[in-house]
Structures are given as C-alpha cells and as structure tokens.
Write a structure and sequence with these properties.
alpha/beta, 8 helices, 184 residues, 6 strands, 38% helix, four-stranded parallel sheet
C-alpha cells in the first residue's frame, strides 16, 4: 500500500483525495474496481476509497463482491475522477474533471503488475475503457452498473447485471490458474 499512497501524494491536491483502503490488495491486486468519484463527505479526518464506507453504494458493493466470492486481497478500489467534485456538494462532473481524472490512470495501472481485470463501475468510469485498453490491450475490461441504491432500485436487471459482471471477474481469476481466495 505504501507505493500506492506515495503515488497518491504525487497527484494534484492530494488532500482532496481519499486514501487507498489498507484492507484491499494493494499492488498485488488482480482486479481494479474503478468507480466514478468519491462521494462528498462532511466528516473530518482521512477518507478512504473503500467498500467499508457508510454510503449506500459501498454497502451494496460490499454485498455483491462478497456474494461473488471475491476476496478483498484480490481487489483494489479507486475512482476514475479521484477527488470529490464540487467541494462537498453533489453535482455532475464536468468534461474537464473527467479528462483530468482519466489522465491519472496510466501511472496507477503501472503500479498494479498482477492486474488481470478492471471493472468499470458506472457511466463515468466506463469512459476509462479507451485509456486502459491503449495501455493494457490484453487486460479484461468489464462494464458494470453502479451499485448506488437509487440505481439498484430502478430495475431488477441492474442488480442482475452487477452480479453477472462480478461472477465473470471471479471466473477470470479462476481461469488464470490461481484460485480466488475465499473469505474465511
């Protein structure tokens, strides 16, 4: 995790960025969960890109990942736009913010040598596909619906889509010849 945290410190305004979750796989991760952007937070103290956060999206993501049998040591979570937009107020990201966020991905991907799959979680994260495929053309890149409660409640197909993508990612790791780690 130290290498990832040092990388994080090199980005513009690292104080605006969440930390990587120390319980995740760090540079040994085989799957990158790339979400859209950190949710605004009024809580003081350090923030983490983590499915252990109290948000509805994080709670749903944790449930779906656990259901797929993926061990968090195989995963690392980050955001296509790694800073909370709008200084604490929820708003749509601008095209410029998305371009700036996606520009950070090549150097992050270089720090993940065991990476086998990137899960693009939500509309904004899905814009990262050409960036990732240009750098790592043989990497599996899968689009997944965002696990926000509002999105999951729109249709049963959303939950089914999330479950299907995570199950596919689990199969990819198994096919690699290294069984996925199961939770104890």
């Amino acid at each position: 995790m130290r290498l990832l945290e040092r990388w994080r410190e090199t980005l513009v305004n690292p104080d605006r960025l969440p930390h990587f979750d120390p319980a995740d796989g760090g540079t040994n991760a085989r799957i990158l969960l790339l979400l859209e952007t950190p949710a605004p937070s009024a809580r003081p103290g350090p923030r983490f890109a983590s499915r252990d956060n109290a948000s509805g999206s994080a709670v749903n993501l944790r449930r779906y990942v656990d259901q797929a049998g993926l061990d968090r040591r195989d995963l690392i979570q980050w955001n296509a736009v790694p800073w909370a937009a709008g200084g604490g107020e929820k708003r749509r990201l601008t095209r410029q913010e998305i371009r700036e966020g996606l520009a950070t991905l090549p150097s992050l991907l270089a720090l993940l040598p065991r990476l086998r799959c990137v899960l693009l979680v939500g509309r904004v994260a899905q814009e990262a596909r050409p960036v990732i495929e240009a750098i790592l053309p043989n990497l599996a890149v899968l689009a997944m619906p965002h696990p926000s409660p509002a999105n999951v409640c729109t249709s049963p197909s959303v939950a089914a889509g999330i479950e299907a993508v995570l199950a596919h990612a689990a199969r990819l790791l198994r096919r690699e010849g290294v069984p996925i780690s199961m939770r104890n």
